[in-house]
Amino acid sequence: MAESNYWQRWAKNRLSRRRFLATAATAGAGALAYTMVGCRESRPSATPAAQETPTGPTRGGIVRTVLLGGNVFDSVDVHRAFGDPTSWLSNYVLNKIVRYKNPDTGEIEGDLAERWEIIDGANYVFHIRQNVFWQDTPITGGRQLTADDIRWHIERQREGKLSDGSQASFRHQSFYQQVVRVETPDQFTVRVTLQQPRGTFLDRLANYFSTVPNREAMERFEKNHTVITEEAMPATGAFILRRWRSGEEIKAERNPKYFRQGRPYVDGWIYPTGLFEDPNAWRIAFEQKQVDYFYSSDPNLPKSIIESHPGQMYEVLTGVANTVFMHLNMNQQFKDVRLVKALHTAFDRRAVIQAFHQGLAQVSGPVPWLQEGFAIPPAELANLDGYRTNRDEDIRTARQLWQAAGGPALGEINIKVPDTWLAVWPDTVQIIPNMLNQALGVNQFRSTRTSYNEEIIPNLFNGQFPNWFGWTSQVTGPDPRETLFSVFHPRGSQNFQKVNNPELTSLLEAAIQETDYQRAVDIVRRIQRILIDNGQYGNVVLYNYILRTAVWNYFRGAIKKPPSPGEPALGYNIFSGHLAADEMWLNPNDPTFQGRANISL
Amino acid sequence: MARVDELAAPPLRGEVPLGAYRATLRRLWSVAKRNKLGTLGFVLVILILAVAVLSPVIKRYDENHQFQRPNPEFNPNANPLDIARNPNLGSPFILDRWQAPNWEHWLGTDQYGRDIYARIVVGARMAVIIGFGASLISVLSGTITGLISGYFGGRVDFFLQRVVDGVQAFPPLVLLLLLVSVLEEPNLTLTVVALGFLGWAYSTRVMRSVVLSVSASTFVEAARAAGAGPLRIMFRHVLPNVFATMVVIFSISIGIYILAEAGLSFLGLGPADQTTWGKMVNTGRNQLDSHPWEALFSGLAITLAVLAFNLAGDALRDELDPRLRGRT
């Protein structure tokens, strides 16, 4: 029989395992050679510079980007949501009584209140704008916002009760419990009386979680507040929610009745699903102009994208509000404060910044540098234990303390690392214990994986939490006093280490009541020095890193300092969604606008 | 025919005659000539084992040491704005990260300034421990259950084989992820045991089929007729006859386990506190376009190790199986 066709001959010869392996080896070598040829060092490129438009902001267009740091919403009720995303979203839709004009310095301006008077530290009068209307929906009827809305907003959170009188969990109830009385002498005046002077009262009202929701909508959705729907958040602010459902794109359009004339600039925005969770998809969408900006925990990624699009993108640098901590449990292994001071001093903050963030971070004292008004200045910090630029001196101090307090007798010490951190920096479990072992001249430290939800958070209140390194609290505003009080005062709600230092306690009480800014700053700096002397009582603030964002030139937003040739733009370190809502705009005249995806709501 | 000197001086008890060595060497040489790929595999395996055993001596540097150099740009008074403009201002030293291969660092450095060559060498040790450990667990446990299942048959066989069916019904990777993530902190021991358990079902199945065949042999019948008990028959008569299969499964599985561990480590579920090749690939992949050395060399190490153990295992099977011997 004549030889059959090629495929039959191929089938007859059959691919043996051995032949397959040999072929695989050849293919592997080929692939290797191909990769080697393709390898290159990152190319230097011209410094990208966005061009300023002389005509100023242009109205119109739909922004499509990851506006919020996450979109898992636990409630439609901003008073009862314990996760931040609902509060973040509300800053684009609702207003606060007052708001930050500059979130980093803490300068405050009116929002729903057009002006206010501080009678003394315990009495405040707010004059509410008369041109604020709720979004016209069947629930609100488009009625005017009045002083009664503000009174309800404060009293509901103070009482912690729903409209039927039942108790519920309200995230900020403890803060509002200091309010003794809320009076409304007329339709647009609110008088608030506190138990005692509180220097942080206005700051808290300006925070991102202090937005004022609509009373009728909240009461309508009180029983099923975890079901996410746009109907539950009628707007007074820059945007109206058109679509807000769990796991779906969020869509918002311009509020035509927004009381700030001429704002917002854009017609609407879309928050796409899936991109925040998938950096690779986000990067691709960004490079294809389907979304307008891109950031990543790896600072090299946005940088390399910017460098590969010379002159088309600009760089925005912002401090990351999630402070990096090392927590040492003083209820268990570290009962002697000298031990935590030894570790506080031994931890090489600058080395870790180098290792994980390529230098793009700044060491933080007990008050992170993001809260620039209250933080100890870098030059002064560099002379304190744990922050010295002379590392040998810190190591000597740390070793003396460790030996004197019987550290070697503690045996193995596990500094755990949360899985969310390890997903980004998996080598942390080798780098951190190695650093501490070397600094203290021991072989006691190791690191294993942990989880915020399974091990850390459930054990904070019972004092059984592990020692851990990673992100912790978010810097929510420019004033650190409430946080310091909460963490280090014996009555503080987050005093998990059971700190009780009489000198520190009296300073914390003085700080919280102080209404004079400069005096408050002085007290807070004294508090910080006491904390450093005591190893921050195991809540060792280490540093805050800097996020690099790549932005197409056609997109402009609320930034602290715009880009200039050779200089990156600087964004706000502390949440500024309310400013972004008002200020972001698209420039259709910019050459990079060409080829942008056609986006509509 | 025996030579005169051999007749005159018979070997002492336990001493191997020189001729036997020569014969073995001649046979090995003949096999090597016949099966070149297998020989390459064995050479690579020996090389990997040598690197693993000698790693503390040949690694040159501590695999966790972060190389750094003084930073002339350091400014202790730099504020965050200055650092944002120039990240080099904030530290009195700079890590020697992402160095290309050079005389000091033969395979370059990773993003933490660690020597990639030292980490590859230490990773070889981990790969060998994991590969041999998991393979040993899977073959020993599989042999015992396969022996029991195949020899006794009946209900014992039925029960054991349904358990094997149950384990094999799960996709291997899913089962592995489940085991490692549900149990506890993924350390080295846990990883080895989990991988070994995964291979147990396959080993049991193969060993059972061989035991079934051997159990039907006349010498087993003869032993039984002579009054030998089940344990004696299993361990004195059946086990020696399935040993070749055990060796083949063991050798071929090593590469598979090395690959499986690399996959686990790549997903962040491997032994987190150890230096493994999979973890290196995971860490290095983010800089693949600009600094490919870490991902490239660790990936190459995995490829070579898996290829070596597969080729060696394949050659071993050819030589130990009389039906395949000499067909290369």
Average residue-wise pLDDT of chain A = 88
Any idea what the CATH architecture of the largest domain in chain B is?
Answer: Orthogonal Bundle
User: Describe the biggest sheet of chain A?
Assistant: 7 strands, mixed
Q: How much of the polypeptide of chain A forms β-strand, as a percent range?
A: 15-25%
Main β-sheet description of chain B: 2 strands, antiparallel
Per CATH, the class of the domain at 322-545 in chain A reads Alpha Beta
**Could you estimate the helical fraction of the residues of chain B in percent?**
55-70%
Termini gap of chain A:
69 Å
Structural domain count of chain B? 2
Let me know the CATH homologous superfamily of the largest domain in chain B. Answer: MetI-like
How many helices of chain B does DSSP assign? Answer: 12
Q: Which oligomeric state applies?
A: heterodimer
Taking pLDDT < 50 over at least 5 consecutive residues as the criterion, the unreliable ranges of chain B are: 1-9
Number of strands of chain A: 23
**Number of helical stretches of at least 4 residues of chain A:** 20
Here the CATH topology of the domain at 322-545 in chain A equals Dipeptide-binding Protein, domain 3
Structural class by helix and strand composition of chain B: mainly alpha
What does this structure look like?
The complex is a heterodimer of chains A (601) and B (328). Chain A is α+β, with helices and mostly antiparallel strands and 601 residues long. Helices cover 31% and strands 18% of the residues of chain A. In chain A, strands 11, 12, 13, 14, 19, 20 and 22 form a seven-stranded mixed β-sheet that branches. A four-stranded mixed β-sheet of chain A has the order 1-10-9-8, with no helix packed on it. In chain A, strand 2 (98-102) and strand 3 form a beta hairpin. In chain A, helix 17 (481-488) runs antiparallel to helix 18 (502-513). The model of chain A is unreliable at 1-52 (pLDDT under 50). By secondary structure, chain B is mainly α. Chain B folds into two domains: 70-98, no CATH class; 116-320, Orthogonal Bundle (MetI-like fold), CATH 1.10.3720. The two termini of chain B are 31 Å apart. At the A-B interface, helix 2, helix 9, helix 11, strand 14 and helix 14 of A face helix 4, strand 2, helix 11 and helix 12 of B.
